[in-house]
């Protein structure tokens, strides 16, 4: 009976450790070393992704194309989805101080972390995410 209880407990706890877990960067004020006039929007993720992870990427890209179609077309705003498990992504992730799923808006030495807002709202309240993205991009366009 004791083994059965332990087994059932493991079955309930194990998915918590294996599920997708958004992580914000540790230092939101850390300066990015990218020097450019364009706004780079980075969505960092892992290979295995949950519905929320996919929604953050899809909604962010959709919102940028809806609100800033001209800037996206002219490459003034560039959206990049980067798999942290790819060898090619390690350099940019390290440069920006990324260790987990993250949504960053970078222009020159300014870096805005919208990870928490993205993961909290992409599926349940995309209008709030849209509002925050607009506020962030408008602030960076100045």
Explain how this protein is built.
- The chain is of the alpha+beta class and 142 residues long.
- The protein has a single domain, classed as 3-Layer(aba) Sandwich (Glutaredoxin).
- Helices cover 49% and strands 17% of the residues.
- It contains 6 helices and 4 strands, in the order αβααβαββαα.
- It has helices at 2-18, 51-67, 69-73, 90-96, 115-121, 126-141; strands spanning 39-45, 77-83, 102-107, 110-113.
- It has a 4-stranded mixed β-sheet.
- Strand 3 and strand 4 (110-113) form a beta hairpin.
- Helix 2 (51-67) packs across helix 6 (126-141).
Mind sketching the topology for me?
Blueprint: H1 2-18, E1 39-45, H2 51-67, H3 69-73, E2 77-83, H4 90-96, E3 102-107, E4 110-113, H5 115-121, H6 126-141
Parallel strand pairs: 1-2
Antiparallel strand pairs: 1-3, 3-4
Helix pairs in contact: 2-6
Short description, anyone?
With 142 residues, this protein is an alpha+beta fold.
Defining key terms:
142 residues, alpha+beta, four-stranded mixed sheet, 4 strands
Q: Helicity, in percent?
A: 40-55%
Instruction: Classify the fold: give the CATH topology.
Output: Glutaredoxin
Write the H/E string, N to C: HEHHEHEEHH
Count all strands and give the number.
4
Structural class, from secondary structure content?
Answer: alpha+beta
């Amino acid at each position: 009976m004791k083994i059965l209880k332990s087994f059932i407990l493991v079955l309930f706890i194990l998915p918590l450790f294996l599920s997708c877990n958004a992580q914000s960067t540790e230092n939101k004020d850390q300066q990015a070393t990218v020097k450019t006039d364009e706004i780079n929007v980075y969505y960092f993720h892992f290979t295995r992704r949950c519905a929320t992870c996919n929604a953050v990427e899809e909604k962010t890209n959709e919102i940028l194309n809806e609100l800033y179609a001209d800037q996206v077309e002219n490459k003034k705003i560039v959206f990049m989805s980067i798999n942290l498990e790819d060898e090619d992504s390690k350099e940019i992730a390290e440069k920006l101080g990324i260790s987990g799923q993250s949504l960053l808006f970078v222009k020159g030495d300014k870096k805005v972390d919208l990870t928490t807002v993205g993961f909290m709202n992409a599926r349940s309240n995309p209008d709030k995410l849209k509002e925050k993205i607009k506020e962030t991009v408008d602030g960076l366009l100045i």
